[in-house]
Specification:
Blueprint lengths: L5 E7 L6 H9 L6 E7 L6 H7 L5 E4 L5 H10 L5 E4 L5 E2 L3 H11 L5 E9 L5 E4 L8 H6 L9 E4 H7 L10 H12 L3 E11 L10 H13 L8 H20 L3 H14 L3 H14 L4 H21 L1
Parallel strand pairs: 1-2, 1-4, 2-3, 6-9
Antiparallel strand pairs: 4-8, 5-9, 6-7, 6-8
Helix pairs in contact: 8-9, 9-10, 9-11
Length: 311
């Protein structure tokens, strides 16, 4: 049986620091055939020089776009593979990932979406433990509890994309999360407990910034699908963001705005220990401290899981 063609799309913009490692993580996979498409948004750093080094093994375009989601959508319009996934220009595929994904789809002909485990890495690429929130999920869990999928470790059949549609450019911070929910409305999401990707966690990464704007998207997006606003797993973080803004309003004499944000924070919080962790982090280091806190929490949870399994 011939292996199915796998298409990987990478959106990129001024990521000279990371993109060569990302490219190599795809091109060194022990799998064939791979169609690799890089959609660059018109980088002005050394990204294009790096792309030219590999242009005999991948396809790349460099042109202005409307952001990450637009670049990904445009990339998949060029795709001809049977299995698709996207890999941001600061993340990495694990060795053997595409072979694992291909074998799963070949052994499960009724499956359309699969995701696996992912390892957290720091800004400079040092391992920081496996992501501890990944687990089997479905439409209801995604809508009401949280996002249990790490984006670079997710893959699907091309037919799913054509059925579900492209990424919705309305969303900046929940772009992938919203797509998982749309996919889960129509298809079963299959989880395989094998590491497929490395997710880089650092202050400038879009996933780990956004503050109130991200909280607002987390509130608005689930309501489109019948949810009750911010899913449970994100409420402590959002509550801390609103309380921090309430304090800023109060310092500047905006009492009505401060009261409104404080009320929102109180209505959201459902996990006092995590809420306290977020508040302390915001007070000491601001939003830039959130990625470091998440890395630390990831290490702690990972250690606790290992201890529990060893008992």
């Amino acid at each position: 049986m011939m292996n199915p063609l796998i298409t990987i799309v990478t959106p990129s913009y001024n990521h000279e620091q990371f993109i060569e490692a990302t490219i190599q993580s795809v091109l060194t996979q022990d799998y064939s055939p791979i169609e690799y498409i890089i959609m660059d948004g018109g980088s002005t750093d050394g990204t294009l020089d790096i792309l030219r080094k590999y242009e005999d093994r991948l396809t790349w375009y460099s042109e202005p776009d409307k952001g990450q989601g637009d670049a990904i959508n445009k990339g998949f319009r060029h795709a001809t593979g049977e299995i698709w996934g996207w890999l941001n220009s600061d993340d990495l595929l694990m060795p053997g990932a595409l072979k694992t994904v291909s074998q799963f789809f070949q052994n499960h002909l009724d499956a359309y979406f699969v995701y696996g485990d992912a390892e957290a890495i720091t800004l400079d690429g040092k391992p920081a433990g496996m992501r501890t929130h990944i687990r089997p999920t479905d439409f209801d869990k995604l809508l009401n509890i949280g996002d249990f999928i790490v984006q670079p470790a997710a893959f699907w059949r091309a037919e799913l994309w054509r059925t579900v549609g492209e990424l919705d450019l309305q969303w900046q911070y929940v772009l992938d999360y919203e797509y998982w929910i749309r996919a889960a409305r129509r298809y079963q999401l299959h989880y395989i407990p094998q590491p497929l990707a490395q997710e880089r966690i650092y202050a400038a990464a879009k996933t780990f910034r956004g503050g109130i704007e991200r909280a607002a998207e987390l509130d608005q997006m689930p309501r489109r699908f019948g949810g009750d606003g911010i899913p449970q797993g994100f409420r402590s973080e959002a509550a801390a963001m609103y309380l921090a803004r309430a304090w800023d309003h109060l310092k500047h004499g905006r009492r009505a705005e401060a009261q409104a944000d404080a009320n929102t924070a109180l209505s959201l919080n459902n996990n006092l220990p995590m809420f306290a962790v977020y508040i302390v982090t915001l007070a000491l280091r601001g939003e830039a401290g959130i990625p470091g806190m998440r890395l630390a929490m990831n290490r702690v949870r990972g250690a606790l899981q290992k201890f529990s399994l060893a008992k």
